[in-house]
Prior knowledge:
With 195 residues, this protein is an alpha+beta fold. It is built from five helices and seven strands. The chain has a seven-stranded antiparallel beta sheet. The protein is elongated, with a radius of gyration of 20 Å.
Amino acid sequence: MSDAVAVQFIHDFGFGCLVSDDLVGSHLPFIFNEDSNTLLTHLAKANPHHKILDAKEVLIIFSGPHAYISPSWYEKGPAVPTWNYAAVHVKGRVKLLDGQETMSVVTQTVEKYEADLFNQVDIYNHEFNARLSRAIIGVEIEILSIEGKLKLGQHRSVNDQQGVFDGLYSKDHESQMLAQYMKKINVGIGCIEAS
């Protein structure tokens, strides 16, 4: 996976699992700040994980669409069942943020996922934000490395890729999401032209 594909993957699939060196994990939404090469997120102060994170190195795992791949979708057998997926692993160093910085992270998260919420002051307002800031803590992660993996059958023949792509579209929603992602990045789709 190229760096550009990995960066876009984090933007597209920003909900990840932050794992600390003591094997504690927290599932969190992340914002990728490309200017500072950092990931931003926040945790509830009720989550004890934040107490062991400051200045520590962590792993963040981002998972995208994934699905079972039937060997019956290949042109010829024998073959084994497998699982296709896309994922990115980020290693980084944590810095805990102060209240104002934490609210900036919350603002950026709302901007990304529901910018119209800023116009709904009966739901999201300064008074509520002041209370919120006492209950959460922001996290900035300096990115040390990014590794991505695309296991999408791209090594198989064009006919096998086409069979897998068609098979995914004939299955459940998760399988269709994987096919859509494959088409978006134009990997493992055989002779289908990406739009």
